[in-house]
Amino acid sequence: MLSPATIDVIKQTVPVLQENGETLTRHFYQRMFTHNPEVKAFFNPAHQQAGTQQRALAGAICAYAQHIDNPAALTNAVELIAQKHASLGIKAEHYPIVGENLLASIREVLGEAATDEIINAWAEAYGVLADIFIQREGQIYQQQEDTYGWEGFKPFLVEKRERCSDNIESFYLCPADGRKLAMHQPGQYITVRIPLEDGTTTMRNYSVSNMPGEAWFRISVKREAGEGIDVPDGVVSSYLHDRLRTGDSIDVAPPAGEFTLDLPAEADKPLVFVAGGVGITPLMSMLQVALDESPAQRPIVFIQGALNRSVQPFAEELAALEKRYDNLTLHVRFSEPQAGDVESGRCDSEGFVDNALLDELVGGDKAAWYFCGPTPMLQHVRQLLKQRGVADEDQHFEFFGPARALD
């Protein structure tokens, strides 16, 4: 427990953090990567270059300071971060590295404003927060060992590759030791680790897009195309698309993540899924479980948004599910349809998801909503649902990359 004096000092630093948060976190990452290059493998350089990682950390630090006297308000955020940390293999010994560089950055960025009182208060506050993460992450590692039979990374083999769209490839990964896979929770992701040319490794999270209980983990990976020298092609997605072949080995860590399906207790309460682009991947696993485990009277609506047919993933798989289940309504909306997309019936409508479409498919029914996609799409859907009076507890969403505020 933090002392009242420490809580008071931390609260006083909130305005300074709001004004200087991103400057502080940029300095922090640069300092840490210089003094402790061994931790660079835990971070996505694309997120560093885009600044999303720095903004996310700045927001997290400010939120912690604002709620320092009510840590229960941060429970969901702590769980999201702890799951991400466990997926990457972050352990207790890494926290002193972060703490040392964070405190040094506060002193170096704020200068004389960073008094000993402030530094000591933040050292105490960081120690408490680190203990929370260490304890929760230890529990996650034990859960992974108990449920899946391994912790950390172990080799998997590529059973097959499958084209999912012009820019998305599916990889079916099976344990190299031949052990049967335990059922993952629909919506979870796994972590893959690949070698780099300099002899180091890097890691990425990919949602499991197949039904739990199958012989493999299927990940469906979008090729991240660059935008010139400043934004190069995605390192890991390029490796998977261009170099990983059937029979190859790849290191995989157990499923993790808090964005999972929780079926409503009411048998007739509708479920609505809204997928944007490659954000469909966790929702595919959820959809299949929802269809198999829901009573026949539960309406299930699946809205898929894509640019056009060339980049529409899982078209045949979704169509087959709609034919098989009478309670599933599938609606495909293209924002930039190609010639023939509408006429051929490849999409049901044009544009972005809007209230008119939701009125048509869902109406005023109280439903549970799951949505995933690019950040602008998440922000748009979140605003639509707020306008419709959907309670926060009925809204479930996931970011691909560092989380940020939607409201």
Automatic annotation (TrEMBL):
It catalyses: 2 nitric oxide + NADPH + 2 O2 = 2 nitrate + NADP(+) + H(+); 2 nitric oxide + NADH + 2 O2 = 2 nitrate + NAD(+) + H(+). It holds the Pfam family NAD_binding_1. Is involved in NO detoxification in an aerobic process, termed nitric oxide dioxygenase (NOD) reaction that utilizes O(2) and NAD(P)H to convert NO to nitrate, which protects the bacterium from various noxious nitrogen compounds. Therefore, plays a central role in the inducible response to nitrosative stress. GO terms for molecular function: nitric oxide dioxygenase NAD(P)H activity. Its EC number is 1.14.12.17. Its cofactor is heme b. The keyword Transport applies. The lineage of its organism: Bacteria, Pseudomonadati, Pseudomonadota, Gammaproteobacteria, Pseudomonadales. Residues 151-262 form the FAD-binding FR-type domain. It is an enzyme of class 1 (oxidoreductase). PANTHER family: FLAVOHEMOPROTEIN (PTHR43396). In the C-terminal section; belongs to the flavoprotein pyridine nucleotide cytochrome reductase family. SUPFAM superfamilies: Ferredoxin reductase-like, C-terminal NADP-linked domain, Globin-like, Riboflavin synthase domain-like. This is nitric oxide dioxygenase. The gene is hmpA. CDD domains: FHb-globin_3, flavohem_like_fad_nad_binding. Residues 1-138 form the Globin domain. Keywords: Detoxification, Heme, Iron, Metal-binding, NAD, NADP, Oxidoreductase, Oxygen transport, Transport.
